Amino acid sequence: MSERALLDVTKVPFVFNKEQSIQAQGNTMGFILQLLARKDIPDKTWQIMKTCFSHIGISEDSFFLKISRDISNHIDKHTEVLYEGKKIVFSGCKNYYHNYRHMQEVVLNAMFLLSINEAYKEIDFSVEDKAFLLFSALIHDIGHDGTGNVEKGEYIPYRLEKISVDIVTPIIKRHMGLEAEEFIKKVRAIVYATDIQTASDFLKDILLYQRGILKSPPVFTEVTEVFNPLLSNKNLAEIAAMLCDADIAFSIAYNFACTWEASVNLSKEITGSDELALNNLNTFNDKMADIKSLAGEKLRPNFEVVKDSSKKMLKIKNLGSLIDG
Q1: Contact of 189 with 162, CB cutoff 8 Å
Q2: Is omega for the bond preceding 42 within 30 degrees of 0, making it cis?
Q3: Residues 143-153 pLDDT 10s
Q4: What is the distance between the alpha carbons of residues 67 and 168, in angstroms, rounded to a whole number?
Q5: Which residues contact 212 (CB under 8 A, 6 or more apart)?
Q6: CA 41 to CA 101: how far, in whole Å?
Q7: In 177-293, where does DSSP find H-type helix?
Q8: Whole-number pLDDT of residue 318
Q9: I want to staple 131 with a disulfide (CB 3.0 to 4.6 A). Which of 64, 126, 187, 263 is the partner?
Q10: 177-205 confidence digits (pLDDT tens)
Q11: What's the confidence (pLDDT) of residue 287?
């Protein structure tokens, strides 16, 4: 099966059309992702990655392509790896939300955001910049265990993000040799930025400094020094912001149907039940869905509609409970 038979990234919404409303293209994007999630196709992750890499102009002999193929194969085959004495599955296939479908969605969300950026000509990303985004999207939740960054009651910054980067590190080193170290530093900075609780405010300060709004750079600490590559490379900082937005785009920025589906799956993963889906959704909207990238900001009208719909649904549910009582 050809990549085009699975997915065509040469058309809207992957090629963003400024003449069409953002709501319409967001709805199209959400619809595509919902359909794609239901297609049980061998090597789907690799087909998506190869198609996206081809679209941004990656050469056939690029190490990005070789490493991504290796990792995609592990995801599609649900490969297990031993990590700190525990068995971890590359694909997170036992998770309701943080699984291979989510990884595929985030890669495609990243393509959508790159397309928006291209349409508005805001940042001149190189092919390598775009490849860093797509690769980081692919690996950002590899080995996710279905929990958060709290272990035995203690919050551990970047716990899950560290697992993801650590698991793919041997693969990167096998393909890149001595060049791997600098590559891994950049990938780690981008992926660690998705730990909202630890990284969100610091990443915003880096972005404000890079955009010339803050006059002084943020002060690094032992916890935030991992983001040094983002301060020395403006485009890399914007890529990290786009990954954060791509990570939550399906949940907040397309339409209520996508958001509801994501909320139900997230609730099942966290609690084993979808009973608190609406409550979790509203908490997510209020506290976590902080759009960071310039491209992601274009999706704000969709986010506001989704947010309003979810709050109305919660009120209706609460009112129904009162009436039933």
Answers
A1: no
A2: no
A3: 999 998 988 88
A4: 9
A5: none
A6: 12
A7: 180-192, 196-210, 228-232, 234-252, 256-271, 277-287
A8: 63
A9: 64
A10: 999 999 999 999 999 999 988 999 999 99
A11: 63
Concatenated DSSP letters for 47-81? HHHHHHHHHHT--TT-HHHHHHHHHHHHHHTT-EE
Distance CA 138, CA 49 (A): 8
Which of the following CATH numbers is that of domain 3-324: 4.10.640.10, 1.10.1300.10, 1.10.569.10, 1.10.10.10? 1.10.1300.10
Structure tokens at 181: 């170290």
Q: Which residues contact 111 (CB under 8 A, 6 or more apart)?
A: 9, 14, 52, 55, 134
The ranges assigned to domains in the chain are 3-324
Is 290 in contact with 247 (CB distance < 8 Å)? no
Mean pLDDT computed over 241-264? 91
Q: pLDDT tens digit string along 5-58?
A: 678 888 889 999 999 998 899 999 999 999 998 888 889 999 999 999 999 999
**What is the mean predicted confidence (pLDDT) over 70-74?**
97
Determine which helix (DSSP H) or strand (DSSP E) holds 155, and give its type and residue range. Answer: strand 154-155
Beta bridge partners of 86: 83
Contact 284, 303 (CB under 8 A): no
Residue for token digits 């990549």?
Answer: 3
Q: What is the pLDDT of residue 59?
A: 92
Say what the pLDDT of residue 273 is: 84
Phi-psi region of 37 (alpha: psi -120 to 50; beta: other; left: phi over 0): alpha
Nearest to 285 by CA among 259, 257, 315, 267: 259
Residues 325, 319: Cα–Cα separation, whole Å: 10
Return the structure tokens found at 152.
């035995």
| CA distance linking residue 99 with residue 94, whole number of Å | 7
Residue 163 has pLDDT above 70, yes or no: yes
